[in-house]
Design brief:
homodimer; alpha/beta; Rossmann fold; 3 domains; 6-stranded mixed sheet; 12 helices; 44% helix; elongated; DNA-binding
DNA sequence: TTGTAGGCGTTATCAC
DNA sequence: GTGATAACGCCTACAA
């Protein structure tokens, strides 16, 4: 049995079939379709249909033509928040006829650099980046090459790029206001190590400012969540310590909420009695105990906004470099039993 | 200020800088590096380094050279199970120097067809498919074009492709054995509509066979999970009906488990008293009530296996078409309080 | 071991 | 409106 390696049809074959030139066929599949005579259009449409023609994106990406490709760098694909944002990015891309190429860095700066180079080698037309480290050099190279960039949440050094994300300052204020209103007076703030990651920094700083301004007592645990021993220890101490003031744990993101919930469960703490509030809404928050109070981020909107920034950049691009901007979204509080005493 | 649209360096510039030919540079970046003299290698390495050269994947994907691109079609990116498998696929790709392009179809057959054509237009070297509908025609076209295909879980009509997934028959047997051993005698099987989706079919069929063989009473609710009213009604009826035999709900996948947990909570049912067992392990299953018993799938392994199949196909490809095969993985039971009375 | 020449499928330029 | 023709950056016979 012979190999049926049926070659993919090319623009040339369509041209022949439609008694037209390559140019016309190319035009038909580009923005310039209108410039063709109705008759020509029908012929090409029919021929393409018959032959099942599809432009080869690799080829069009080569010659000045656009690759129609957007790249996205995700720090942790298993984080539901990242996926939700990605979903928004994806939809916005689809609506614009763009394809999305997603790379997961698994929180590894080395992989991040590698992926960045990779995406560049595919000549993506824009890049949405949820960074782990600080690949300033690589990003700067991309910017100079003319690739529009959008950073999710964390802003990076000198890089000329838009930043889209949550209004972390107000988010933290909302959280603290709610906890205070519910009568919690001693707080434990739980976060992964902030290092350079700017949103974690912002949230942490605001936590400190916020408790000071409100006269609340507070402490902080900023260790890798993987170190469950340290975590259980910290939470255990916090909960067991004698005090007359109700206590609550404030989690900086979804992962922290998961870790805290596990720890509290292991300790046999009753949610609400020990308060619990997490940033990021998750499927299961309503199902655990009396429900976990969360601060939901408008994930889809964030994703869409990222693509919008990209496109705006591309339009205006070339001539003058627009100033880097910031787009901030507001969180919304979902009160549940974990902050009801 | 002039636009700094610094052109990306090409193979030609590297060649000049290294006093070599394009061919040699090309060889350096391909499998044939060893054929170059040590001196030549050093010169090229240095030049490439200096100029920050990276081969343009678009260009190399054009001429017979490989695109180094693997495509993946995901039915629902927000399903943690899909993401976990994707993570395995991703790792396997990385280890082989392949890039992964992921497309989410949002459970829409139309988008599925669209994305398939898209991936084809990028000349992917292999495709991992988690199908929603039955895009037989599109897939057949890809196969004939020589693209290796791997289907996740569901097998599709006549298409010549490997299938990787869970051993659903044994998984259901494990579930039923466990439920019976724990003393549950009446079961409600909860699934999304099976239609053509073969794993759902398989699981449903085995459920019917299994309860018959074991002398258990059973019924089935196969409606879209979005219809919460119907769902609550069904579960409410099931739970409230007078009977002397303990009852349990068996969920066909993670989404069903989520929906069932919500419904049971709304009904005020106590987990364990009403049994609950779900296929697919999720972050939160250990946290709800006494914990939800699950059947975990080896997701990473499934993803990796998919890529392995792809590669095997590509190696042996061309000459003779290997027979389509099936790779089955075993689930593992994680017993928790939801099936303890 | 190294280089030359042609072609991959498309788009851009410039004629007609 | 339409169509030759030259790039685009790389790979691959074929030569040397």
């Amino acid at each position: 049995m012979p190999t049926t390696t049926q070659q993919r049809t090319t623009i040339l074959e369509v041209a022949r079939e439609a008694r037209a030139s390559k140019t016309s066929v190319s035009r038909y599949f580009s923005e310039e379709r209108e410039r063709l005579s109705p008759d020509m259009q029908t012929r090409i449409a029919a021929a393409a249909q018959r032959l099942g023609y599809r432009p080869n994106r690799m080829a069009s990406g080569l010659k000045g033509g656009r690759s129609r490709l957007i790249g996205m760098l995700v720090a942790d694909i298993r984080n539901p928040f990242s996926v939700a944002v990605m979903h928004g990015v994806e939809q916005a891309c689809r609506e614009r006829g763009l394809s999305l190429m997603v790379c997961n860095t698994d929180n590894d700066p080395a992989q991040e650099r590698e992926h960045l180079a990779l995406l560049a080698s595919y000549r993506v037309e824009g890049l949405v980046i949820n960074a782990v480290g600080s690949p300033d050099r690589e990003l700067q190279a991309l910017v100079e090459q003319g690739t529009p960039l959008v950073l999710l949440e964390r802003e990076l050094g000198e890089v000329e790029a838009e930043v889209v994300g949550l209004d972390n300052v107000r988010a933290l204020d909302m959280a603290l206001n709610h906890l205070q209103a519910q009568g919690y007076g001693e707080l434990l703030y739980l976060s992964e190590p902030p290092e350079q990651a700017s949103p974690r920094q912002t949230r942490l700083t605001r936590f400190h400012q916020g408790i000071a301004a409100r006269g609340l007592a507070g402490e902080v645990h900023c260790r890798p969540l993987g170190d469950t021993e340290a975590l259980h220890h910290a939470i255990g101490d916090f909960v067991a310590r004698p005090s007359t003031v109700p206590r609550a744990v404030l989690c900086a993101n979804g992962n922290a909420t998961l870790a805290a919930t596990r720890a509290l469960r292991a300790l046999g703490a009753r949610l609400g009695e020990v308060g619990l509030l997490g940033i990021d809404e998750l499927d299961w928050c309503e199902l655990v105990g009396p429900g976990i109070t969360t601060l939901a981020q408008p994930t889809e909107a964030i994703g869409r906004a990222a693509v919008e920034c990209l496109m705006r950049r591309r339009e205006g691009g070339g001539e003058r470099i627009a100033p880097a901007r910031r787009v901030h979204f507001q969180a919304s509080l979902i009160p549940r039993g974990s902050t009801r005493r």
